[in-house]
Amino acid sequence: MASRPLFGFTAIAALAAAVGLTGCGTGDDSELTVYSARQEHLIKPIFDRFTEETGIPVRYITDSAGPLMERLRSEGERTRADILMTVDAGNLYMAADAGLLRPVDSAVLRERIPEHLRDPEGRWFGYSVRARTIIYHPDRVDPANLESYEGLADRRWRYRLCMRTSQQVYNQSLVATLIAHHGEEHTEETVRGWVANFGADPFSNDTSVLNAIRAGQCDVGVTNTYYLGRLLRENPDLPLAVFWPNQDDRGVHINVSGAGITQHAKRPDDALILLEWLAGDEAQALFAALNLEYPAVEGVQWDPIVAGWGEFKADTINVAEAGRLQRQATMLMDRAGYR
Amino acid sequence: MTGRPTARLRRAWQRLGGWRLFALVTGAVLGAPIVVTAAAWLFPDHEVWNHLASTLLPEILRNTVILVFGVGSLVMVIGVGLAWLTAVCEFPGRRIFDWALMLPLAVPTYVLAFVFVGMFEFAGPVQSALRDLFGPDIWFPNIRSAPGVVLVMALVLYPYVYMLSRAAFLAQGRAPLEAARVQGLSPTAAFFRVALPMARPAIAAGTALALMETLADFGAVSIFNFQTFTTAIYRAWYGYQSLEAAAQLSALLLLIVLSGLWLERRARGRARFDQRTHDRLERIRLRGWKRWGATAAAGSVLFLGFLLPATQLVIWAWGRLDVLDPGYYSLILNTLTLGGIAAVVTVSVALLLAYGRRVQTDPITQRAVTAATLGYAMPGSVLAVGIMLSFTWIDHGLAWLAAPWGGLGSTFLAGSVGALILAYVVRFMAVGYGAVDSSLERIRPVLRDAARSLGAGEREVIRRVYIPMLRPGILTGILLVGVDVMKEMPATLLMRPFGWDTLALRIFELTVEGHWERAAVPAITLVVVGLIPVILLVVRSSR
Would you kindly state where each structural domain of chain B is located, as residue ranges? Predict the structure, then answer.
């Protein structure tokens, strides 16, 4: 009797081996293949819509950008991936730099996607804008005291500031653009000021930062706006407000979620059809609204929650700068004691 | 059966030192990803290392020491203490605790971590309720701290020690304890001076598993934002954009683990305990405060490690069952399938290795076997990159060979189910091997010699002597590896073929964004699915 479970497992194993082998058999290249760092629930509805309209089937695999790029690199010219999609410009910059993406000459994309949201050489394009801004509790903070990212280093915010870990690419990008604007020395001072003002150890994610501000652990924080949007979708009365910093100088720090065609794509024509389709009005609205981000193309309708935060001036430094300075930024944060 | 060709083949196998060859090949295949990783030291990234030495490295080393000593001593105290209570003593609820204390094994570390952080952080339900009751200034310990991490890790990992040392206590039987009592030792003294030293190999094996898992963990420490080797590895990879530095950090971590294992083995020396009796143990009936004290101790561990997180998950999951679409069931199927195949393959290979190591006792074979079990101490993602690099290398070789016949089209190994299974085998060989090896240890070599002298061939010895005696160990190994594979995240994330998403991946996608509530449904499912092998383990061990 003791061998029952063993038989069960063997049966499962045999069954699965059969499934696995047939799975290997269908490894053909008839579908457009996307390696995506954007999560499944944010891309599946879009790809479904695309397939419906164009008849081109899309399959995808999701992971963080680092492992996906490493997979792409190691597969070399035998990769099945046609498109690499990430949630930040830094990794797109890295991928292009490593020769993983091919340049595309498309009048549609050049015209639709603003210049600072795409690679100057046409190897990748940003499809949605993610604004990283200041969030505050209106009962405890007078927005007149807020001004800029740099201003959060002021003593006024001692033990009142909450931020996500520096492990995360969004904060690395933010600091990278600070370096681009102010140089390393001045930026390190700012970051040290933030660390001194922390009201709690850095959190593992932005949602926790927002919850901490709501609960009173701190009064002000820096997060991407769509995290607030997601919370507002569930609880419209959440007492958290958006502040747009640096409106008198360079503008709010933004990043993009974007995509490019891989160097060794097997279906580059279909891939380009998808890239251009993504820049269309309908796809743009859907792409942004699914995650409460901002469409990259101007004139496309914003989601009502997003529109509620009002217009803002965005930093127009090319988003790839963040990728170039990311290593420097991460090391700077280490030195400043930002974990 | 033993026709001429077979006999000739067998002789050739023996002349070649077949087992050594097998161990060497397996060791090479399973060790290759580690070698690839360690080879990164050929190209040291000086900028990163200078930077690390002056910033993060001291903190990482300090935190690693805290983790090793904290988790190590806590799992030993909880695991051995509870094993002794349930194996030797009698107290209210003992029959339930016997098996229930195994349940936390089904809870992945990162799940317990997000439940604890979600519940006990400032904005969580517990502190919010306390503030409502006692005003905003009430003090509460910070859950995202070193003690918090140690507690969460220990609550999930103590079952390894509990399970192995409980089996050891049961196997000791009555004789040694009675001898100790006759010599005038108190029950406590008998425990510390007789039972504990005899159970030492089991305790050490369980603690080693727990610590290797601790050092390789990334999910839990990142939820706590606790800086360790694994977080630094990801920082080097994603932040400093240097996969080389990440691989070098992994190799350093591996070196630490190796020295630990070596020290343990040296300290254990040549001690061998294959005492095994079938006399039923007369349980010590606890009296007075000890009676309920034992219940309280076992109860609080079970409460914190299983009941509390399970309840919180159910509360969070309530009203969020909309995620249960048809695609969700394929997640469950994938999880079970991968766990099942990987477990059977891993334990089969482990069995052959453990047997081969006994037949062929030369140092080369021994080292090859060690090499095959090292993957357990590697953070899954770095190991996965190592595996992927070795596989693509093989792929490129195959493509080159196949080129004259029209080529292979696309990748053959990398991105196939087989590659993912192999990744699991590399990662969890230590678990399967440990289970098989410890039960193989109990079979005295005399048995094999006796069977051989009666004319049984090597294969017959395996089939008629070893398999029946090893069945418990084999099953334990399969179930443990199965649970581990189902909880595994980073290697699955990197190596899965299209359409092979698992529950662990879904949990990861949600927790990384702080959606504790939405992660609850897949987390509960994973715990329930993981309970299947755990319950089988329990049923087996209670027989």
Answer: 17-44+319-398+409-543, 56-104+147-317
One fold for A30-129+255-303 and A130-253+315-335: yes
CATH, domain range B56-104+147-317: 1.10.3720.10
Distance from CA of A337 to the nearest CA of B (A): 8
**Per-residue pLDDT tens over the stretch B212-254:** 889 988 889 999 999 999 899 889 988 998 888 888 898 888 8
Q: What is the domain partition of chain A in residue ranges?
A: 30-129+255-303, 130-253+315-335
Query: What are the C-alpha distances in Å from A204 to residues A115, B49, B516?
Result: 33, 25, 12
Nearest CB partner across the interface for A339, out of B136, B225, B341: B225
Amino acid B490: pLDDT: 78
Contact list, B351 vs chain A (CB under 8 Å): none
A121–B contact, CB cutoff 8 A: no
In the predicted model, what is the mean pLDDT of residues A250-254? 96
Number of A:B CB contacts under 8 A? 185
- CATH architecture group of domain A30-129+255-303: 3-Layer(aba) Sandwich (3.40)
Q: Do A13 and B222 touch (CB under 8 A)?
A: no
Enter the ipTM.
Answer: 0.87
Count of H helices and E strands in chain B?
27, 2
Cβ pair A331:B222 closer than 8 A? no
Pick the residue of A38, A43, A71 with the most B CBs within 10 A to test the interface with B by mutation.
A71
- The total of other beta-carbon atoms located within 10 Å of residue B21's CB is 15
Global confidence as pTM: 0.89
Neighbours of B263 (CB within 10 A): 10
Return the residue of B nearest to A215 by Cα: B123
Helix (H, G, I), strand (E, B) or coil at B288: coil
**pLDDT above 70: residue A16:** no
User: At which residue do the structure tokens 């727990």 appear?
Assistant: B210
Class level of CATH domain A130-253+315-335: alpha beta
User: Would you state the pLDDT for residue B405?
Assistant: 62
Q: Please report residues of A whose CB lies closer than 8 A to that of B328.
A: none
Distance from CA of A20 to the nearest CA of B (A): 6
Residue A138 burial (CB < 10 Å; 0-12/13-18/19+)?
exposed
Please check whether residue A282 touches B, CB under 8 A: no
Q: How confident is the model at residue A276 (pLDDT cuts 50, 70, 90)?
A: very high
Q: What is the DSSP string of B310-339?
A: HHHHHHHHTT-GGG--HHHHHHHHHHHHHH
The CATH architecture to which B17-44+319-398+409-543 belongs is Orthogonal Bundle (1.10)
